[in-house]
Write a structure and sequence with these properties.
The chain is an all-beta fold and 142 residues long. Helix content is 0%, strand content 69%. The chain has no helices and ten strands.
């Protein structure tokens, strides 16, 4: 499954800097290197003039599941761990420092057909306790 993510990807999405901020529309481009046991995605998302963010995901099979890192937070690299369910990686994020009141969030990396991918992060709003989509990017193989 990991090997199917290899290639160049581009697309659009939305980022929220915090759970209460308005979403910013972004354009993204990523390159992915993959093997049957590892995945490394490296790219950049840009929105308006005020947002330009390097993003990336690395995942490696650890036998029972997957672990790795997420680059994209202003707090620094975050830890990832989780499992593959069907065509979706369900991952827990452990931020380097508190984000939105804690260091925990969720990420999904989903293969969509042969040439599509969706990255989604969800965090909990510390005031309401509600889950908020903080990043949603739809990518297509270039």
């Amino acid at each position: 499954m990991l090997a199917s993510f290899a290639g160049s990807w581009s697309g659009k999405g939305k980022f929220r800097l915090t759970t209460v901020s308005s979403p910013v529309t972004v354009s993204c481009a990523m390159d992915a290197d993959a093997s049957p046991t590892s995945l490394s995605m490296d790219g950049k998302c840009r929105g308006l003039v005020v947002v330009s963010r390097k993003i990336g995901v690395t995942l490696k099979s650890d036998g029972a599941g997957f672990s790795g890192a997420y680059l994209g937070s202003t707090t620094g690299p975050a830890g990832l761990s989780g499992a593959l369910t069907g065509d979706v990686f369900d991952l827990s994020i452990r931020w380097a420092k508190a984000v939105n009141g804690d260091r925990e969030a969720k990420m999904k990396v989903q293969k969509v057909g042969e040439n599509g991918m969706k990255l989604t992060t969800v965090d909990v709003d510390p005031k309401t306790g509600e889950q908020v989509v903080t990043c949603e990017i739809d990518l297509n193989r270039s």
